[in-house]
Amino acid sequence: MKVDTNTLKKIAHLARLEFDETSAEKMTQDMTQILDWVEQLNEVDTEGVEPITTMSSEVNVLREDKVGEHLPHESGLKNAPQRDSDYFRVPKVLE
């Protein structure tokens, strides 16, 4: 797929990118190469290949949920630096 100057300008506007004419020519060539490579990937036979859901090979170690004893909410709030009735008070994050 060939990326033309108008398409590049639209993409640059959406991505809030700015570059000069020399860089625009290089960017057009690079984007065309990337899209050509993606088109090659579309030709690969992926029949029977399971999709991956994560890039990590680690497996979550899960445990069985068990009902246990819980502390009353008063004891949990006892050492809170600031509290309001039955709730923890925390600093405001957003204005």
From TrEMBL:
InterPro entries: Asp/Glu-ADT_sf_sub_c, GatC. NCBIfam families: gatC. PANTHER family: GLUTAMYL-TRNA(GLN) AMIDOTRANSFERASE SUBUNIT C, MITOCHONDRIAL. GO terms for biological process: glutaminyl-tRNAGln biosynthesis via transamidation; regulation of translational fidelity; translation. HAMAP family: GatC (MF_00122). This is Aspartyl/glutamyl-tRNA(Asn/Gln) amidotransferase subunit C. Signal peptide: none annotated. Heterotrimer of A, B and C subunits. It catalyses: L-aspartyl-tRNA(Asn) + L-glutamine + ATP + H2O = L-asparaginyl-tRNA(Asn) + L-glutamate + ADP + phosphate + 2 H(+); L-glutamyl-tRNA(Gln) + L-glutamine + ATP + H2O = L-glutaminyl-tRNA(Gln) + L-glutamate + ADP + phosphate + H(+). The gene is gatC. Allows the formation of correctly charged Asn-tRNA(Asn) or Gln-tRNA(Gln) through the transamidation of misacylated Asp-tRNA(Asn) or Glu-tRNA(Gln) in organisms which lack either or both of asparaginyl-tRNA or glutaminyl-tRNA synthetases. The reaction takes place in the presence of glutamine and ATP through an activated phospho-Asp-tRNA(Asn) or phospho-Glu-tRNA(Gln). It comes from the Bacteria. GO terms for molecular function: asparaginyl-tRNA synthase (glutamine-hydrolyzing) activity; ATP binding; glutaminyl-tRNA synthase (glutamine-hydrolyzing) activity; transferase activity. Keywords: ATP-binding, Ligase, Nucleotide-binding, Protein biosynthesis, Transferase. It is an enzyme of class 6 (ligase). Belongs to the GatC family. It comes from Belliella pelovolcani. Its EC number is 6.3.5.-.
